[in-house]
Each structure stands twice: as structure tokens, then as C-alpha cells.
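To close the section, here is one more complete example, presented without commentary so you can practise reading it yourself. The ligand is CA2.
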Amino acid sequence: MAKTIYVLNGPNLNLLGTRQPHIYGRATLADVEKLCRSASKRHGFTLVFRQSNHEGQIVDWINEARAEKAAGLIINPAGYTTTSVAILDALLTMESPVVEVHISNIHRREEFRRHSYVSRAARAVICGFGIEGYALAISGLTTLIGAKE
Ligand code: CA2
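Output:
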């Protein structure tokens, strides 16, 4: 049976492709999903792809991923990256690898974007590759799955 991976997206990522193209590019969230579906298929994963503007909803989905024994979880926590202890706590309960993705290079931007709570729970962090970072994260998960910490 194919292993399932979750790709979760945080607040305002539903606006991708409509505003600030100089930072986030012109691709929409639907394009990101298409990219993730194709990368998942290539690596033999079943994909669950979601976006929410609500912190509690994201926490619930992380708990769902754990309960469903997902093989891995990729998250772009967006604005919750720098604020959410609740998302960090949920991620810390995951036994399977977590990869944090950011479309932009958060280290080239405002200082406040550089501190991520989520990174404490992430086995790997990818930023600055645009939406291609999601495909890189899916490919990277194949290495992390099964690899001991
Ligand atoms: O670079 C990323 O992926 C971010 O996670 C995006 C977040 C930002 O708060 C992080 O610092 C870095 C913002 C997501 C909002 O996305 C928008 C996309 C288009 C237009 C407006 C917002």
C-alpha cells in the first residue's frame, strides 16, 4: 500500500499568485498542489494536501496525520512560523519526519521572519526555492523516511 504524506499550508497561502509576485512568484496554490501531486506520484506517495487560515485547524490536521500514521509531513506554516507554540507542540508528537518549507528565503527578509518555532520539530528546512521547494521536500522525505535521527 502506498505511504501517505501530508502537505499543510498556513494562513494567506490561498492568496498565492494574486499578490506580491516579486516575493512569492506567480504560481497559485492550485499550481503548488499540482506540483506536489506529480512529485508524490513519482515517489510512490499518496498525498493529502491542505491549506487553512486557522491555527487550530492546522493543529487538528497534524494530529490527524499522526493518527493516520502518515509517513511524513511537510508544512509551510506561513505567518504561524514565528508565533505558534501550538503548532510546534503538535509537530513534536509526530514520529515520522517533518519538513518545513518556505517559498521565500526567510533569512533575506525582515529579521522577525528568521525565528521559527516550527524548526525545532523539523528534520529539515527548505527555503528560497520558490514553490519548487515543495517538490524538493517530497524528494527529501524519501531519504528521511526510514532513516534514523
Ligand atoms: O516564504 C514563505 O513561504 C512564507 O512562509 C510565506 C508567509 C510568510 O509569513 C513567511 O514569513 C514566509 C506568508 C504567506 C502569505 O502568502 C501570500 C502570498 C501571496 C500574497 C500574499 C500573501
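Once you have examined the C-alpha cells, check your reading against these statements. Residues 12-13, 15-16, 19-20, 24, 76, 78-79, 81, 102-104, 106, 113 surround CA2 (CB under 6 Å). The longest strand covers residues 3-9.
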